[in-house]
Design a protein that fits this description.
The complex is a heterodimer of chains A (325) and B (256).
Chain A: E1 3-6, E2 9-10, E3 13-14, H1 17-32, E4 36-42, H2 46-52, E5 59-64, H3 73-87, E6 91-95, H4 98-110, E7 115-125, E8 128-135, E9 140-146, E10 151-155, E11 173-176, E12 188-189, E13 193-194, E14 207-211, H5 221-231, E15 234-237, H6 239-243, E16 264-268, H7 274-280, E17 285-290, H8 297-300, E18 303-306, H9 309-324
Chain B: E1 2-6, E2 9-11, E3 33-35, H1 37-53, E4 56-63, H2 68-77, E5 81-86, H3 95-106, E6 113-117, H4 128-136, E7 139-150, E8 153-159, E9 164-171, E10 174-178, H5 190-196, E11 201-205, H6 206-209, E12 217-223, E13 232-234, H7 238-252
The chains are: A alpha/beta (325), B alpha/beta (256).
The structure holds flavin-adenine dinucleotide and adenosine monophosphate.
Chain lengths: 325, 256
């Protein structure tokens, strides 16, 4: 019995969230009192597996097959199904990446189980693990228990600190060669690509005023534009604002947009969904203005104002102008 | 082509959420409901594909009696008919149990393309579509932005992290989970609302579908998140909080 952490790499590069999953895995392994193992999947990944072996796992499986060179849900599911049957872990832990979202539910179904997705905390419930998930995009929390074994769990970006390499200690790497036929793989992925070049680099901005759905209408944008210009800030937005075409896509902050780290980030009428937070958590100071006192954004904010943005923002513009005069 | 769109009814986004006294779900007494947002985009995509290619759009929903309202909305926007799997549970069915019911309900339909939302706004599993594909033996792709059927295949544009995308070719039949924002949503017309009243809604009780009911996970208790960070909340009228904030930014955070 073990806890197995499935690490993610693309083209030989780690997805850093893999190391956060390792930390979560360590915690679960402690609760269960079993060793921690890890797996790396791909083609020609031996050196990555060796590197992973330096992170405290008792063993790292190098799941290697040429049909795994490109990610496909069919290939990954087949390979991991075989590994899990062979290794028989008590729990399988993943980082909650877009790739994991794509195949882990399928994999869990093979074991008549469900993925406990996007977990933010793990509690020791007398030798059983309770997994904390968020409901309603962070407005409520919920303790979840796995119904069967192995438990399948994915952990949210930033919820756990990334594991550090253990000094001069390294577990063994074990090659695992899954049986996969080309005919099993139904989807044909093409090369990933990026759309048009970005003309604004929000990553370099010192001040950012970011606007969310609380602004209600495109015609109200001048309210936040005034704040941005008073501060000399870049204007940014949550996803729905860009989806609606109110601001260009390149001004979107979050997991599918830009990552920013300004001196001050004003979140105006933004609820604080995790996909938004991952893009702005590195900000030095966060100010949140939201009419809902329970909005999750207040958890991330240094300064919070519960109020109507249409009253608070114009008042703030006046005060900033005075302070700068 | 035959398109099936799964649509979930969820508490409206601005609802004030109160946990029920047993800690298992919400106090639903003063909640209003709406169509899960990504599902509205999945429906829009299906309707546009039907307009281009012909065929039929079938709405699929598992929910209590109140979900009939959301089903009517989908029909009013232009879906042809609906299947309503009636369940007692209001919020607590997990993704595996839900997908099993949905799979049973559509197996005989032999759809070409099933479109689901990528995630529900309430439970947020992000799994039901993928599990449904596995149960039906269909190929799938998640976080889909564009759908382009080509003969007996479909080419989809998937969103990846950090502004990356990827096109993937899938054989039909397939399941795609649709990301919000792919198309502009239509409104139901008066004519559409009138017509919806005459469209077929097939109601099946979950018990009638039978099958495995064991959940994959169990929600033990629901609660308000414990705040861990010390956030300084400023209070007063707009002018007062603005003054305080500028003070703090100037002298405490030293960023102005
Ligand atoms: C795979 C995936 C990727 C995603 N990528 C991103 C991403 O990169 N970036 C991103 O932002 N989102 C992303 N999302 C969407 C994300 O989950 C949220 O849906 C989104 O961030 C919500 O935007 P919002 O906060 O503006 O809107 P809402 O959640 O609707 O919040 C609006 C807020 O405004 C407040 N409000 C309303 N009126 C007022 C008023 N008058 N004054 C003050 N406050 C008011 C409300 O209380 C509420 O908190 C992604 C989702 C998925 C599933
Ligand atoms: N009860 C339901 N009825 C119909 N569709 C559902 C139901 N639950 C989930 N879905 C679909 O599955 C998607 C993902 O839901 P979830 O896995 O809960 O995040 C939703 O966007 C819906 O399209």
């Amino acid at each position: 019995m073990s806890v197995l952490v499935v690490l993610e790499q693309r083209g030989g590069k780690w997805n850093r969230m893999s190391f956060e999953a390792l930390t979560a895995g360590q915690k679960i392994a402690q609760i269960f009192g079993v060793p921690l193992q890890a797996a790396v999947i791909g083609s020609g990944i031996e050196s990555l597996a060796k590197e992973a072996a330096g992170y405290g796992a008792s063993k790292v499986f190098a799941v290697d097959h040429e049909l795994l060179a490109k990610y496909t849900p069919d290939g990954y599911t087949a390979a991991l199904e075989q590994l899990i049957k062979a290794a028989n872990p008590k729990a399988v832990i993943f980082p909650h990446t877009y790739q994991v979202r794509d195949f882990a539910p399928k994999l869990a179904t093979r074991f008549s189980n469900a993925l406990i997705s996007d977990v933010v905390e793990i509690k020791d419930d007398a030798g059983k693990a309770a997994f904390v998930r968020q409901l309603f995009q962070g407005k409520l929390s919920c303790d979840v228990q796995a119904a069967g074994e192995p438990a399948f769990v994915s952990v949210q970006a930033g919820a756990f600190r990334g594991a550090e390499a253990a000094a001069n200690e390294s577990g063994p790497v074990e090659a695992f060669a899954p049986q996969i036929e080309a005919s099993q793989i139904r989807s044909k992925p093409e090369e990933p690509f990026r759309e048009a070049q970005r003309s604004v680099d929000l990553g370099a901005a010192e001040f950012i005023v970011s606007v969310g759905r609380g602004i209600k209408e495109k015609d109200n944008l001048p309210v936040v534009e005034a704040l941005a210009s008073a501060l000399g800030a870049e204007l940014a937005a949550s996803r729905p604002i860009c989806d609606n075409g109110w601001l260009p896509m390149e001004r979107q902050v979050g997991s599918s947009g830009q990552t920013v780290a300004p001196k001050v980030y004003f979140a105006v009428g933004i609820s604080g969904a995790i996909q938004h937070l991952v893009g702005m958590k590195g900000s030095k100071t966060v100010v949140a203005i939201n009419k809902d006192e329970n909005a999750p954004i207040f958890e991330t904010a240094d300064y919070g104002v519960v109020g109507d943005l249409f009253e608070v923002v114009p008042a703030l513009v006046d005060e900033i102008k005075k302070a700068k005069a | 082509m035959k398109f099936i769109v799964s649509v979930k009814q969820v508490p409206a986004r601005d609802s004030s959420l109160r946990v029920s006294s047993d800690g298992k779900w919400l106090d639903e007494s003063d909640i209003t409901y709406e169509m899960n947002e990504p599902d509205a985009y999945a429906l829009e995509e299906a309707l546009q594909l039907k307009e281009k290619l012909g065929g039929e759009v079938v709405v699929l929903c598992a929910g209590p009696a109140r979900a009939a309202q959301t089903i009517r909305e989908a029909l009013a926007k232009g879906a042809d008919r609906a299947i309503h799997v009636q369940i007692e549970e209001t919020g607590t069915l997990d993704a595996l149990a839900t997908a099993r019911l949905l799979a049973k309900a559509v197996q005989a339909e032999a759809a070409d393309l099933i479109l689901t939302g990528l995630q529900s706004d309430d439970l947020g599993y992000g799994q039901t579509g993928v599990i449904l594909a596995e149960l039906l033996g269909y190929a799938h792709a998640t976080i889909v932005m564009e759908v382009e059927p080509q003969g007996n295949t479909v080419r989809v544009k998937r969103e990846l992290e950090d502004g990356w995308f990827q096109n993937v070719l899938l054989p039909l039949p397939a399941v795609v989970t649709v990301q919000s924002g792919i198309k502009k949503l239509r409104y139901a017309t008066l004519m559409g609302i009138k017509k919806a009243k005459t469209k077929e809604v097939k109601t099946v009780a979950a018990a009638q579908l039978g099958g495995d009911k064991t959940p994959g996970s169990v929600m033990a208790n629901i609660y308000m998140p414990q705040r861990s960070k010390q956030t300084q909340m400023l209070s007063g009228d707009a002018k007062q909080v603005a003054q305080q904030l500028v003070e703090k930014l100037k002298f405490e955070a030293r960023v102005l």
